[in-house]
Amino acid sequence: xxxxxxxxxxxxxxxxxxxxxxxxxxxxxxxxxxxxxxxxxxxxxxxxxxxxxxxxxxxxxxxxxxxxxxxxxxxxxxxxxxxxxxxxxxxxxxxxxxxxxxxxxxxxxxxxxxxxxxxxxxxxxxxxxxxxxxxxxxxxxxxxxxxxxxxxxxxxxxxxxxxxxxxxxxxxxxxxxxxxxxxxxxxxxxxxxxxxxxxxxxxxxxxxxxxxxxxxxxxxxxxxxxxxxxxxxxxxxxxxxxxxxxxxxxxxxxxxxxxxxxxxxxxxxxxxxxxxxxxxxxxxxxxxxxxxxxxxxxxxxxxxxxxxxxxxxxxxxxxxxxxxxxxxxxxxxxxxxxxxxxxxxxxxxxxxxxxxxxxxxxxxxxxxxxxxxxxxxxxxxxxxxxxxxxxxxxxxxxxxxxxxxxxxxxxxxxxxxxxxxxxx
Amino acid sequence: xxxxxxxxxxxxxxxxxxxxxxxxxxxxxxxxxxxxxxxxxxxxxxxxxxxxxxxxxxxxxxxxxxxxxxxxxxxxxxxxxxxxxxxxxxxxxxxxxxxxxxxxxxxxxxxxxxxxxxxxxxxxxxxxx
Lengths: 424, 129
Known about the structure:
In chain A, 48% of the residues lie in helices and 19% in strands. By secondary structure, chain A is an alpha+beta fold.
């Protein structure tokens, strides 16, 4: 018996540390390098291309570049090139010996050159003989942390007087380049978070669910041993322990369901809500009979949706309507629909305990609960999942309720065409 | 030995363990239990309630969390509440942000992770007495 208890404790510790390690991991994201931001990739990118084309046409110059300074590899890399000629166009980069832009990045300030051979700072730069750079106007571009990483520049092959307006225009375009880089960083970060979340969900399903199951088995093994010892208190302990593992199991299942929702491209089909309702009522028939509930269902529409999620949604709302009732009261539930040419609206109304206005937003939150396990058992995920399902369909869920006066949940779902939904 | 303490915790099993510990250690005469923090607030507002030595308070509870309770109690209850009462956070959360938030309340005298054992209870009682 002692050995069994030690195993239980060991498993619980495992569950606990596993969870904490993940929370720590999720806390910080490293700064993305220029390479990680994809700024040294040879991929054509429209947003940068448009900006160099704009710079070239507004400033009336033949060449405009977005140049990233890559010191470790002694080069400037052209993320976007407008008007560059061969062989530079194919190379897409030059050694730093040919770079005006490095000065812009170094100073984090504009570089204004009207006639390069006469400019003290760049007169020996090899870009003059090799690329024919004579007039140059460059302004810095930045990574999301504000560090200058290169330049947006305008180049002419003959001397040119840059005026204040030229500089102001190029600065504005450089801000657009910064925005494009920031957007890229946000996308990369959210991608990383998604991947991390997928890993976590996987860990939940295996690393946590498995030990919960083991724990349950071990606790069940303890039962007969306690009976031999004939100890009432031990039996109570064991019962409570088993209840707790049941809750853990249920909660893990619900969390997984919530996490997976919307991750895969879910199949969309015509879903007859009358069929969904009768299937769900079949699933809940035990509860419906034991509570003596009457459920009136009006004619419901057929909608374009994922059938599985519609069943989950109806199951959650209907079981809530059955569950949250004053003791001994027979649930009276109606399910009906209205709407117009643009949307379907489904109402599920009950005569239950109702929800105080104060708590009506709380109930849709993850793990938001208004009652103890003894009063109304649950995982605090049902309505959060329901809201997620509805928002996944571009719909809205709302509640009208008063304490003691019953509750109506209304779901507004925009009408969709099955062909357009499956195409996009 | 303390006369009366409040336990505010939504979990029935935790009530069971707390009362059992009190019974075994004989350090507290009377425990008044609440499953909901708003019910405890109502109780504290009543005039004829006994003097409370310590409030043992959970964090994650339905409707009103332990922190919501403290915000409400420290602002809406008479000044004497802040001066006389001792609150002990008794929670399964060891998250740093919860501990930091608890530290912001003067009425909180200790932050204890579940399960509370006999030594833990003894040291809380000694501190209060």
